Every structure is written in structure tokens, then in C-alpha cells.
Amino acid sequence: MAPNLGILVFIALCTAFAVYLLQLNTGREIQTTAGDLSWIDAYAALGDSYGVGIGAGHPIKGSSNVELNTACWQYSHGYPNQLNSFFSRLESNPSRKFQFLGCSGALVTDVLGKQVPLLDRPQIVTVSAGGNDADLSTILNYCIYQWASYDSWTCERVLAQSRNKTESVEFAKNIDNLLTGIKERLRDEDSRIYYTGYSKFWDVTDTACDNVTWSFTRLSGYQYLTQDRRKTMNDLVDLVNRQIKDAVSRAGPKAVFIDWQQDVDRIQGRYCEPGVDESYNHGKGSGINRENTSFYEWGTTKDDDDDDDDDDGSPKEQGYHELRKRWETPTNATFEGAITNWVNKGLQDHPEEVASSMPGSDFSGRWLPDKYARVFHPTKLAHGIIADKVLKAMVLEQCKYAPRGKH
Predict the structure, then answer these.
(1) Which of 142-163 are b and which e, b meaning 16 or more Cβ less than 10 Å from the residue's Cβ?
(2) Which of 94, 135, 141, 300 sees the fewest Cβ atoms within 10 Å?
(3) For residue range 80-92, what is the model confidence (pLDDT) as tens digits?
């Protein structure tokens, strides 16, 4: 029997993909192997602050979703918008729909209860969720910055609490429920969920950072970036990823885990990389603006001079007005709001010390500028890496499961 011509064509497609050189708004070209993805006409992005890209670019005009929270703030260089920009360049259905539903500060249960019900039969869903369930903002206060830490809690106690939460049956069950909820709203059997993991923040290969502290001026002891402390925090990220990856496996072939950690290793994009001086100088780290940094540090101006600015260097009007809305918007439920609350507590007790670490800031007591609120979140470069990994995973899925009737 002669082989099916359609099968031969598909095999040829999967063994000789067209190579797209995508700018992906990262400031460098990323070579992405991409097959025919023109069949995608409905993409939805869910998740937390990693899934909206806080601080990477400018808030997208009109993207704040009233049904969720007017302080969600999806950003132009977050990986969901980078993916959407790529899909927009394909010769696909002009009525293609993009639902950008992620919200900073969202817990896994928030994504399930507030974002998933809004899905409109998407073919592709990306999701980032779980970091807030592991108490990231609390860890940053007690173990890194010490904006406010005058109670009985210690870094060790906070890290232990985070591990207990992440190891719990409830944590795993919440992710299972989220994946089940998304699957129920997918368009068809060929639709896919791409669940992005998190990346370890620290290089732990040497002890150069052991005498470095990023703590604000304290009356009591500083927290130092010791090798053991860095390893413990990296282990927590690995634990979160393991829980997500196991849940994705339980969810079956419709769900795919996206691991981008090796790419961060490749570009040496973590904090405390060998040869990088991470010490602070008047509240600013000397290494905070290096090219390959994958995560924002306190007060960084990295990515501030990109193409999101007008010719005169001022923020684009739409981004400026979106940011100004935060003055009237309660932000307690967002990651930025949590950081703002910690800083406010510090200001109440030691206003001069805390304020000196935010030079030039017009801090209102309700909203922090992005150069502070985006700490420990992916840079524009890192979001490009995530987008690239998702695209490659999508092509691999096409090789494994040919979308019926789409080729």
C-alpha cells in the first residue's frame, strides 16, 4: 500500500522546520525553530506576576481586566505579549483572539476561580502560577531586603513555612484542579496547555556573595547572601517546579511543562554569578544593569531605555497613564502591593533609612515605581527566553500529535 501523502508531508514538515529569526523584543535575535503555527486563532495567557511580565516594558493600554482586578497590569514585553506578537505576524485568521488574563499576585486558586471562567475556548493556553503560594514576597522581606522585620519571624522560619506549604497535599491538589479547570474549557483534543516553571535565582558555585547583603539599614543584624542561604532558596524553586511538573504529568498529553532554567545557566543570568560584584552602593547594586541579568534587582534601570520610550526619552503616554491609575487603585492583592506594604512598615519605623534606598522616588505610600516593585522578576531578555521555549514546545507537540485537519 502506498504511504499516505498527508503523512509524508507532515513528516517532512516535522523534520525540516522553517527557521524564524525572531526579535521577540529581547534586544537580541533568538533563533527559534518554528513549524506551521498559522492554525492558532485563539490564545489565552493566565497566571501571576511572572505571567504578566511586571516591569518588562510598559503596561499595555486597556489590558487591565475589570472583572479580575484593575491592578493586574499586563506588560508589553511579558512572554505572553511576545508570543501574541509572533502569532500576529503569521498568516492566520484575522479574527484571531488573544485573552491576556493574568494578574499580579494571583494564587493558584485565584487563577482557577477568576481567570479560567473567562476562557473562550482557546487552542493554546500558557499559565504561570505557584510562586505566590510559596510566599515569595515574604521571603524577600525576611531573607533578602528586610524592609520591615521587627517581629519574632526569622528568615529560617519563613523558608521552613514556604517549604511546608509547597510540599503540602493542598499545593499539589490546587495545581491539579487548575489544570483540570483549564482542560474543560479548551477548544478540542488538539488544544494544549503550556505551564511555565520558575527559575532559580542564585548561582551557588562559589562564596563571593557570602559577605554581601541587600538588606536595608537595620538596627539588628543583616541578612547575608551566603552560599547555604542561596542553596536553600534555590531548592525551594526546584520544589515548586517539581510539584508543577508532576501535576502536568498527571494531567495527561494536553499539558506541557516549560523548563527554561538551562537557558538562564547558559547566559549566566542569575544573581551572584562568578566575577559579578553584587554589593550595594548607596542602595544600588553595582551589577544590577549587566546585560545578561535574567531577574530585576532593587532600583535597576535595566530595560528602561528600550523602544517603549518616546523620542524625548519620556515614557510612552499609554504606559504613563496606565501606571498613574495605580495611585487610585488598591494594590494589596498584587505582588507589587505586597512589596509596597512591607516598605510602608519599614517607613513607619525608620523613614530616613528606607527612603534613602529609593533615591528619586515619588513613593506615595500606595504604589512603588517599577524599578523597585519588579524585584526578583524576569527581565525582558528572560521573557524572550520563556517565549522561545514555549514556541519550541509547540512545534514539538505538532510533531508528536498532528493537529487533525489543521495541516
Answers:
(1) bbbbbbbbeeeeebeebbeebb
(2) 94
(3) 999 998 888 776 5
What are the helix (H) ranges across 255-316? 261-266
Q: Which residue, chain included where needed, has cell 487552542?
A: 123
Distances from the Cα of 159 to the Cα of 13, 33, 131, 307, 334, angstroms: 48, 39, 13, 39, 21
**Residue 323 above 70 pLDDT?**
no
Distance between CA atoms of 397 and 389, rounded to whole angstroms?
12
Phi, psi values for residue 45, rounded to 5°: -120, 125
Task: Report the mean per-residue pLDDT for the chain.
Answer: 79
**pLDDT (0 to 100) of residue 361:** 57
Q: Select from 393, 387, 365, 396 the least CA-distant residue to 76.
A: 387
CA separation for the pair 348, 350 (Å, rounded): 6
Cell of 3: 504511504
**Rounded distance, CA 364 to CA 367, Å?**
6
pLDDT at 313: 34
pTM for the model stands at 0.85
Asked if 246 and 172 touch (Cβ cutoff 8 Å), the reply is yes
Which phi and psi (to 5°) does residue 172 adopt?
-65, -40
Q: Which of 310, 406, 379, 365 is nearest to 24 (CA)?
A: 379
Label residue 309 by pLDDT band (50, 70, 90). very low
104, 184, 218, 251, 367 from 370: Cα distances, Å: 13, 36, 24, 36, 9
Cell numbers given for 55: 516591569
Q: Is the predicted pLDDT of residue 291 greater than 60, yes or no?
A: yes
DSSP one-letter string for 327-380:
GGS--TTSHHHHHHHHHHHHHHH-HHHHHTTSTT----SS---HHHHTTTSB-H
Q: Higher pLDDT residue, 307 or 55?
A: 55
Poorest-pLDDT segment among 190-194, 271-275, 364-368, 391-395: 364-368
Q: For 316, phi and psi rounded to 5 degrees?
A: -55, 145
* Pairwise CA distance, residues 69 & 59, whole Å: 14
Whether the CA torsion 202, 205, 210, 211 is positive or negative: it is negative
Q: How confident is the model at residue 44 (pLDDT cuts 50, 70, 90)?
A: very high
Q: What average pLDDT does the segment 16-28 reach? A: 43
3-state secondary structure of 135: coil
